[in-house]
Amino acid sequence: MTGLRILIASPLGHVVADPIRSTFEGSTVVVARNHDEFLSAVAARVRFDVVSADLIFNHAQLEWTFDGLDVIEGLHQADRLAPVLLATQGHSMEEDHLAEARLRSDVSGVVAKSAGLHTFINSLRTVALGQALAEQHPKSMRPSLFELFDGRRGITAARMAGAIAAGNAVDVGSLAQVARVSNNTASKLASNYVGPMMRARHEHDDRLPLTQAAVFRWCGLHARYIVSWCRRHGHSDVLEAQR
User: Fold this and answer.
1) Is 204 helix (H, G, I), strand (E, B) or coil?
2) Which CATH number fits domain 5-129: 3.30.390.50, 3.40.630.30, 3.20.20.450, 3.40.50.2300?
C-alpha cells in the first residue's frame, strides 16, 4: 500500500513513525503527541486514511485530559472520520475505556502494544483497507459504564460520579452544588443512582451496606473513565475546580 495518509496519536508516536513510513512507501505519517497537535493535524489536512490512537495516553497529565476516545470524538467534530485503530498498554485502568470502544461502530480494531511492532503494522494495514480486526478478548458480562451512563438517571449518576472523581465533592451539600442537583437527589447517590450500577456490575460485597463512602471509593477506582465520559459528553462543568 502506498500514498496513505496516516495519523498516529500517541505521546510516543515518533518511535513507530519511521518504521511505518518504511513499510508504507510514499505515505504521509503525522504524529500527534497531545491534544493541541491532534487538533492541528485534523484541521490542516483532508481525511486521513487510517488513525491509530493510544486508548489511554502514557503521560501523567494527558491520561486525565485526553485519550483515544477523545480522538474519535475529535474526528467527528472536525468531520474527518477515518478508520480508527486503538492501541492498548494492557493496564487494568483501560478496562472501562475498552468496554466503550468495543461497543462503538467507529472503532475498527484494538491492538495490544505488547504484541510488537510487526503485529501493530499488520493491524494498521488491515484497518487501512477498510477491514475490522477480529475481537481478541471475550466481551465482559458486566454492563459497561458507557451503557449505564445512558438516559436521564444515568446522566445524573454520571454527573455526580464525575464531581466525586474530580475531587470536587466531599459530602451531600458539595455534591448537590457541583452536580447541580437537589440535596434530596444527592442524598440518594448510593440508593438510587450510582449504587445500583455497582450492584449491576457486581462491584460491591452484598454482605456489607452500600454506603455513600463505598460509592466515593468506587468513583475513585473508575475515575479516569468517569472524567473522560463527562469531558466528552458536555459535562465538563462538574470537573472544573470550584471557587
Assistant:
1) coil
2) 3.40.50.2300
